[in-house]
Design goal:
Layout (H helix, E strand, L loop, with lengths): L2 E5 L4 E2 L5 E9 L2 E11 L4 E9 L8 H15 L4 E7 L3 H9 L3 E10 L11 E5 L2 H23 L3 H15 L9 E8 L2 E11 L2 E9 L8 H15 L4 E7 L3 H9 L3 E10 L2
Parallel strand pairs: 5-6, 11-12
Antiparallel strand pairs: 1-3, 2-3, 3-4, 4-5, 6-13, 7-12, 7-13, 8-9, 9-10, 10-11
Helix pairs in contact: 3-4
Length: about 270
């Protein structure tokens, strides 16, 4: 029997240059599942989304052959790397990714919010970021975000800077008080020691950025900011808090796990060249 991919729609092109297309997974002429491929050819990055195989056809190598066929499509689109997301708890998905040469790059961690909001340590308070503070914060965040984009997408310094500036401008069209975005400053004994950026995502509050000034690190302020995330989420009526962390950042993983965050999604990448 031959496992193949068959498109179910024309190739879709987004205004920003990205493309995507849905496919059926077929064994001979019989549909057994599906997936969606997306790509940013200018970044050399392709994605495999929503891979599914019907229950009667699982355990027969259908998914592995479909992923390998998907990689060939992504190569033809000019992609140099492929990425995919495996839900936490999917042992079969994790084994499949490992067997095909995918390496875990990052995790989305999630914590269910319930009960009373945790308080801050004595001497610490959280307040909203002021207009006067926003400009310096945005400049710092833009540089940091550009560094991540350059590393992850392989962009040049100029490309990463432009993309980062665009992303921040889109997120904050009305400054620090833009809808759905909240910027907090943590003060300890009257001194600003860290910042927190959270955004609303349906029923969850998402941690976009949490940072403690270098001279104030190692004193529990990062933990305090993450506790404040829970207070913020509960105040906004959210059910859970989420964040993304690179798996190589072991200290951060340990901190988040100690606060009750658990894996929600695993992000894998594989070179295609």
């Amino acid at each position: 029997m031959t496992t193949t991919l068959r498109p179910t729609e024309p190739l879709q092109h987004d205004p920003g240059g990205a493309r995507h297309r849905a496919y059926e997974i077929r064994v001979n002429s019989r549909p057994v599942g599906g997936l969606v491929l997306g790509a940013h050819p200018e970044h050399g990055l392709g994605s495999i989304v929503g891979l599914r195989v019907a229950e009667p056809d699982r355990g027969r190598g259908r998914a592995a052959v479909a992923v390998l066929a998907a990689e060939e499509v992504l190569r033809s689109w000019g992609c140099r790397r492929a990425e995919g997301v495996v839900p936490a708890g999917s042992g079969a998905g994790l084994r499949l990714a490992a067997s095909l040469g995918y390496a875990e790059d990052a995790r989305v961690l999630r914590k269910v919010l319930a009960g009373r909001a945790p308080g801050l340590p004595e001497g610490s308070v959280a307040r909203r970021m002021t207009e006067a503070e926003f400009g310096a914060w945005r400049e710092h965040e833009q540089l940091s975000h550009a560094g991540v984009l350059g590393e992850y997408l392989g962009l040049s310094e100029e490309q990463a800077g432009a993309r980062s500036a665009h992303d921040l401008a889109t997120a904050f069209p009305e400054g620090p008080h833009s809808h759905g975005q909240r910027l907090w400053v943590l003060e300890h004994e009257g001194v600003a020691v860290g910042t927190l950026w959270v955004t609303d995502r349906e029923t969850d509050v998402y941690v976009m950025s949490v940072e403690v000034a270098e001279e104030h690190r190692g004193r529990g302020h990062g933990r305090a900011l993450l506790r404040w995330t829970e207070a913020d989420g509960l105040a906004e009526g959210h059910r859970a808090a989420e964040l993304n962390v690179h798996t190589r950042n072991t200290p951060a993983l340990r901190l988040y796990e100690s606060l009750g965050y658990r894996p929600f999604q695993h992000h894998f990448v594989k070179p295609l060249v």
